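Consider a concrete sample entry:
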Amino acid sequence: MKSGRSIPGAYRAESALTVNGYSEKWLRQGFPWVYPNEVTAGRARPGELVRLLSPSGVVLGTALADDGWIAARRFRDDDGPLDAAFVRTRVEAAWALRNGVLPPETTAWRLVNAENDDLPGVRVDVWGTQVVITLDAAALSPLLDPLADAVEALLAPSAILLAWRPDPREKDRPTPPPRVLRGASEAEERVTERGVTFLVRPGAGKDVGLFPDMRDNRGWLAPHWRGRTLLNLFAHTGAFSVAAAKEGAETVTVDLSQGYLDRAAANFAANGLPPGELLAEDSFKALDRLRRQGRKFDRVLLDPPGHSHSKDGTWSGEQDYARLVAAALRVLPSGGWLIAASNLGSVSPHRFQGMLVNGARKADRRLRMVHDGSQPPDFPAALHFPEGRYLKFVVCAAD
């Protein structure tokens, strides 16, 4: 079964968009996006292949047009075709980058990391025997068939699914549900990460249930869990708690969603582990209650979402992180570790460090960094794409 609009054998641009000098400068440095206010001439339909032209008419590349917050995503820096052979070559290059670098007993990983693998707006994730292609916009749909063909040739998965990753700046755009493109999909898949088992749902869109970009950070922490207590806040489906418990830690796992905690309990059971304490509670309220009870933890892990809303209020990773750090330090003894993460691409590592410092000051504490982590090699960050290094992961010892 075919997945959607296909790219003909020689799919070349017939239309053109002229960009301003500012956009030309960034395109010449490798940046793959053109914003609407940078287009000075030309029009194109979403999904239409276009040539990008400098103010003087020089070809700057070949792109797929869109009508959202991005006007065009560039795939090549010349005016060549965007055909099946081109897509296959890009996917094979991404595979070559990952071949041999994944840790043993690991079956959840990323094959294509969008702009960082020169396929802007396209992510391809492997979940055991199933593969999910995630697109940022419907304008990228012409790539589906060649992407699926390339994935089938490399991995022969049992199923290929399509999911969407809408940008929060485009709230008015409808988001289609995930669907199966090829093969037969199982609702739940058992995957491993360095031998730790997790139960994931490949067809659930953003709720798959595991973030493989944290794999190396969980791996670094593995030798440091035995005999320790962990308070894991904003815990999602409990991946850090399960990994810590497998290495001998006692865990308290906190998330506002009972549904996520039920999935965390299933992950513990899949590894033959007791679930420890599972608290369906707002993380700030849990911290305040635990402080009043006089409880202390050797390790406190903060891995909140960028933004969230609940009956208890609104969370902003940019505005509220320092307050969270201060609250966490009140249940962390001297010498304990604060483990802090952020996936906000808009927050630089330097700015994130400042958030941690401000939070420590609020609690009248000091922090000393003992580890600075980031993304694993299957989540490469292209240096010509500043947004590519989005993940910050810092382990600090508290005075």
